[in-house]
Amino acid sequence: MTADLMVRVRGLRKTFVLHHQNGARLPVLDGVDLDVRRGECVVLHGPSGAGKSTLLRSLYANYRIQQGSVEIRHAGEWVNLADAAPRELLAVRAQTVGYVSQFLRVIPRVPALELVAQPLLGAGVARRDAESRAGALLARMNVPEKLWSLPPATFSGGEQQRVNIARGFISRFPVLLLDEPTAALDAANRAVVADMIDDARREGAAIVGIFHDDEVRGRVATRLHPLAALPEAA
Amino acid sequence: MATASASAPEFSSTHGPLLRVNAVTRLYGERTGCRNVSFDLHQGEVLAIAGESGSGKTTLLNCIAGRSRPTAGTVEYNLRHEGLRDIYRLSEARLRLLARTDWGFVHQNPRDGLRIDVSAGANVGERLMAIGDRHYGRIRDTTGDWMRRVELDTSRIDDAPATFSGGMQQRLQIARNLVTHPRLMFMDEPTASLDVSVQARLLDLLRGLASELGLAAIVVTHDLAVARLLAHRLLIMKSGEVVESGLTDQVLDDPQHPYTQLLVSSVLQA
């Protein structure tokens, strides 16, 4: 069933070189292979420092790929993030791969509803439709309606996180990367996010995530992908 | 990570690049302004050029914007109906026309981009007249529209920009540039001379306009937070050379070059 395969990682290696700390070398990933299919939620699992975030960020081309390949099925074709041109990467991010972190990058003066609707507006969806979907998601995330018209700079951490999750889920990306989206949420909101992840997966998204909360992890994961910390290079 | 960065514009894979910068070098006698810089820019892409003062950012911008002929290398622009053409092989008149219709240039100091003693309306309307519009009422209407879009009070249309605040002058300079619907904007430290609160407002405005109008832009900035907010792509310059380039978040979150690592780690929060 290779038609279901959305993410194909082969031999991915990553070493950070810190030039201003005597050129210290921090090997983090050493030959990772990973396949993710539609309808799967693969949870990266391992101790702190095992490279979970590094791998997830590599799947978004946020971290550069030094060795190996990260291929994403984008518009029916395989695109290797390791050698794609900047505008191909931008197109992959605009249409295929979404990344939801726990932190909202607030944009001055932009209200919450607009922030959530922006990915749809950028994709050419009519403003009224984009805003009504944004409102529905914010309501589902229990963000009070009186906050929708305000820029989230003054929101609490949990409120900002929920705005960010709504923004991340609005586009229904075929590939969804989740970097601890439920950290700092209360139990009720964790359950809402878990439901949204399940819904996205049933609609055919290929999902890769990091979840420290055992309960959420057990609830959303269809499979764990183990990662182990590498010994530090001499 | 930039999960709420500028929303991506529509990318068309069928068009070639809007701009092609090929091995551009500008020397001032023995001294290097910039050396061997190459990149393509496509419609709707915003590219930031960052680096410390004296790194060659503005020299490079002036070479690309047709204001300073490179010592070596070419700058090609995708002319409507003609495709990529070396801008320094166009006639001077043609290059001037290009610069005031299809391009915009926003200077760090608005006084360099405005006629400070003629009215705000005339500053904006002038670019329309330069491309042959002679209908006074229409020019005035269009000018009023653009003043509104950059959030200027249209009751100030007959006032000289000398009476405006720095932030208002900068917005007027932007309106003056956008009125001819350029496809490419050059911006040299557009927010550097403004208070922080005014900067945020201007950045948000620029961000909105760029994505709404599908503008391509090259923004010179020393401020990595400006690059993060506005730009899809980022070039880092040092001593006249590009030492690193990539998507903005790649360069800022996973810097490879020692100089980029120093730059990123020196910033409070970018």
Question: What is the topological layout?
Answer:
The complex is a heterodimer of chains A (234) and B (270).
Chain A: E1 5-18, E2 24-37, E3 41-45, H1 52-59, E4 67-74, E5 77-80, H2 86-95, E6 97-100, H3 112-122, H4 127-140, H5 157-169, E7 175-179, H6 187-202, E8 206-210, H7 214-220, E9 223-226
Parallel strand pairs in A: 3-8, 3-9, 6-7, 7-8
Antiparallel strand pairs in A: 1-2, 1-4, 4-5
Helix pairs in contact in A: 3-4, 3-5
Chain B: E1 19-28, E2 31-41, E3 46-50, H1 57-64, E4 72-79, E5 83-86, H2 92-101, E6 103-106, H3 110-113, H4 120-130, H5 136-149, H6 166-178, E7 184-188, H7 196-213, E8 216-220, H8 224-230, E9 233-238, E10 241-247, H9 248-253, H10 258-266
Parallel strand pairs in B: 3-8, 3-9, 6-7, 7-8
Antiparallel strand pairs in B: 1-2, 1-4, 4-5, 9-10
Walk me through what this model shows.
The complex is a heterodimer of chains A (234) and B (270). By secondary structure, chain A is of the alpha/beta class. Chain A has two domains: 2-96 and 173-226, P-loop containing nucleotide triphosphate hydrolases (Rossmann fold, 3-Layer(aba) Sandwich); 107-160, no CATH class. Chain A has helices spanning 52-59, 86-95, 112-122, 127-140, 157-169, 187-202, 214-220, and strands at residues 5-18, 24-37, 41-45, 67-74, 77-80, 97-100, 175-179, 206-210, 223-226. In chain A, the strands form two sheets. In chain A, strands 6-7-8-3-9 form a five-stranded parallel sheet, with helices on both faces. In chain A, strands 2-1-4-5 form a four-stranded antiparallel sheet. In chain A, strand 4 and strand 5 (77-80) form a beta hairpin. The longest helix of chain A is centred in the C-terminal third of the chain and has 16 residues, at 187-202. The mean pLDDT of chain A is 93. Helices cover 37% and strands 24% of the residues of chain B. Chain B has ten helices and ten strands. Chain B has a six-stranded mixed sheet with strand order 6-7-8-3-9-10, sandwiched between helices. In chain B, helix 4 runs parallel beside helix 6. The longest helix of chain B has 18 residues, at 196-213. Chain B is globular and about 55 Å long. Chain B starts with 18 loop residues before the first strand and ends with a helix. The interface between A and B is large, with 39 and 34 residues.
